Amino acid sequence: MIEDSYFAPDYDGARETFLQAAELARLDVATSVHPLQGPAGQALATDTLRIGPADAETLLVLTSGMHGPELMCGSGCQVAALTEGWFERLPEGVAVLMVHAINPWGAAHVRRNNEDNVDLCRNFIDFSDPPAVNSRYEEVHAAFTCPERRGPARDAALAVLRDYRRVHGPGGYGTALMTGQYAHPDGISFGGRGPTWSNRLMTGLVQEHGRGAKRVALVDYHSGLGPWSHGSAVCMYEGERLERAHRWYGPWIWAPRVDVRNAPEECYDVTGHSSDGYDRMLPGVDVTAMVLEYGTRPSTTVFDIMLDDHWLTFFGDRETDEGRAIKAQLLDAFYPDDAEWRWSIVSRARQVVRQAMAGLRAVPAL
């Protein structure tokens, strides 16, 4: 399949493929070097490119790698767009911004979070007014962060989690695990104590390129949630903005803030989501943000692997057979090595880009 050539199984390969595609398309790339290095001592960077006029009033932003190993999926979508020439004939007054590997450390180290154990999709809050303590998370923090992977302590921790899930249901368990917390830097779904390097970079890029725009659509490529190979639209909106998203992307949108009936039990409202951050980055601009979430393994499998990787980060050793096995499982949870899966990813990405471009043309100027 030609789509296979768009993808790579690691950060270095994904970056090389993206840069090659940009070069073949004769597009200039701006590079922001991360202060830390990759596992082999290699440089890490976020790469960006812009297609279209600098003074465009309409802007589409495509972002990959918000969660480290999810880069390999999103990068393939971006490379497909460049290779197939999706934006060779943009309408007048329209530009496209691609942000490749916004969390390069996580991508290179095969870690969903960043170098500070921050989940970037919990980091886009107003830190002058942080959210209240996540009381549900507090009940299970010790179990989530058990220092043993096996043995009596681990058995006891798993029993606590099973009981919590039985009492509160899958939704309550997922809320505790995924919605975000800001009290425990060593915990799950930690949102940080301030804007991260990636947050600051993304804010600067969106503000720089969105300056002068009246309409901005953003699509963040993610993976690890939903049915196998299906790209689900997820919107953190309600009211008129959610109605607009439905007009653009169709009736099947997961809107966890208002429509829990159509969202799966593992799709949660979260604090500090990038969609909320985009609104603050672009005051006075008509912003429509969505997450394109590609399904991989069952949610319970993905959750368990995330817990194993959390244990490995704080208590284990990556340079052991056990550590390497956990990293391989984590990569598989967000980027399965399956040609049909990759074909579906690109096919859905084409559709969503068409929908976003059509929607942007339909939005009246402010």
In short:
With 366 residues, the chain is of the alpha/beta class. The chain contains eleven helices and eight strands.
Which strand order does the major sheet show? Answer: 1-2-4-3-5-8-6-7
Please identify, by name, the CATH architecture of the largest domain: 3-Layer(aba) Sandwich
Low-confidence stretches: none
- Beta-strand segment tally: 8
CATH superfamily of the largest domain: Zn peptidases
CA radius of gyration is 20 Å
Protein name: DUF2817 domain-containing protein
Pfam family, one: DUF2817
InterPro entries: DUF2817
Organism: Rhizorhabdus wittichii
List keywords for this structure.
366 residues, alpha/beta, Aminopeptidase, eight-stranded mixed sheet, 11 helices, 8 strands, 43% helix, DUF2817, DUF2817 domain-containing protein
Structure description:
- This protein is of the alpha/beta class.
- The protein has two domains: 2-131 and 192-293 and 335-362, Aminopeptidase (3-Layer(aba) Sandwich), CATH 3.40.630; 135-178, no CATH class.
- It contains eleven helices and eight strands.
- The protein has helices at residues 11-24, 71-84, 104-108, 135-144, 152-178, 197-210, 239-249, 274-281, 299-315, 321-334, 339-362; strands spanning 30-37, 43-51, 58-63, 94-100, 215-228, 231-234, 253-254, 286-295.
- The chain has an eight-stranded mixed β-sheet with strand order 1-2-4-3-5-8-6-7, sandwiched between helices.
- Helix 1 packs parallel to helix 2.
- The radius of gyration is 20 Å and the shape is globular.
